Amino acid sequence: MDEPRSNDLSRRALLRGAAAAGALLAAPAHASSSPASGAAQPVKTLAGKGKQPHITVIGAGVFGAFTALALRQRGAEVTLIDAWGAGHSRSSSGGETRVIRGVYADRVYVELAARAFELWPEFEKRVGHTIYRRTGALWMVSDSGDFVRQAAANLKAVGFAYEEMTTTEAAKRFPQVAFDGVHWALWEPHAGFLLARQACGLAAEELVKQGGKFRLARVLPFEPANAAPLHEVQLANGPAQQADAFVFACGPWLGQMLPGAVGNHIQATRQEVFYFGTPAGETRFDPDTMPVWVDVGERLYYGIPGNERRGFKIADDTRGETIDPTTEERVPTPEALSRARAFIAQRFPALAGAPLVESRVCQYENSPDHQFILDRHPQADNVWIIGGGSGHGFKFGPAWGERVAQTVLGERPLDPFFGLARLEKKAFVTPRDLRGERPA
Prior knowledge:
The chain is of the alpha+beta class and about 450 residues long. It is built from nine helices and 20 strands. It has helices spanning about 10-25, 60-75, 105-125, 145-160, 165-175, 195-210, 255, 335-345, 395-410, and strands at about 5, 55-60, 75-80, 95-100, 130-135, 135-140, 160-165, 185-190, 190-195, 215, 230-235, 240, 245-250, 265-275, 290-295, 300-305, 310-315, 355-365, 375, 380-385. The strands form four sheets. It has a nine-stranded mixed sheet, with helices on both faces. Strands 10-3-2-13-20-19 form a six-stranded mixed sheet, covered by helices on one side. Strands 4-9-5 form a three-stranded antiparallel sheet. The longest helix is centred in the N-terminal third of the chain and has 21 residues, at about 105-125.
């Protein structure tokens, strides 16, 4: 193996890189002359002269809640609607924690992550609550290493700190980890985890504090009869919701809500998460001493320490079976638990035989290529579609909300990289995990 290469930049250099990425994000990364990627119809004009537009956002997960907040901060009147509440247990944004990282093979997400690293502390200051816990992330490379090496090149280009380590160096730094089968490791010091459901709830509360509205209601599916602006959405349990524009951020329900425009371009897959109990008084697996970790091998496992004292989290990023997120019985399978136990015993020997203290069955809402969706409805140009988090979207919450708000308000053009047109001729073959590999 080559000698380890270090690009361990200072915090000041990281912030310079993040600021540079923010500047990059101010302009479209993929220019096009097609109408779909041109300047959005100015929503501000829909409300009438001298009035702020009223925008309704459907879905209070991380994409919807932070889009609503960003729209309100730009002066729009905003109503946020969710069927079960912000960060509820059926949502893809539910659960205690989510990873925040900059490791991506697609540079557009590294640049977006740089902006998110700036905005999460600002959000924390505004709401008076700690959401982002910086633990660093340990990437253990047990496969060919192509994904992590490409990601490292993107980290360097954007200005994020990282360090490549031999397994000997990694074992010395993290003695609680067994590196059998690992070829080398990458240390990402700025990474960590976010408090997920709490962040969604706090964003919705902050929206109301800033004069926005939150409404607990079920919006009925929308299917336009002709190409015309939408003036209201129908609710199952109350009067129709009227607005100048609508943003559908419905996560795994996006295809059900917009069957014509989205349909099966969004599919929800079953994902099982386990929390194992650490020995009494044991501190080696707490956030102060144990980082977020990712094992990039035959299967991609990842985990988060602490988790609000829920236990030592482990999850398999491999896509599960397709489910209905409303009716799914969220009971973990013995097979997934057995695999998780075996992996824990191999990689963290001190936790071999540790008891299962909690478990969750959540879902990813996948687009066919794992990229996000941000586009106008093809038959109603005051209707916006955002989604496709694909298991990696949470970390971008405030940065993605900012970008969506800018696009909806006509401050920046649509980017075809996130457009619906790219999906029109794609069969849905779910990539195996975040590396984008196809199943055998």
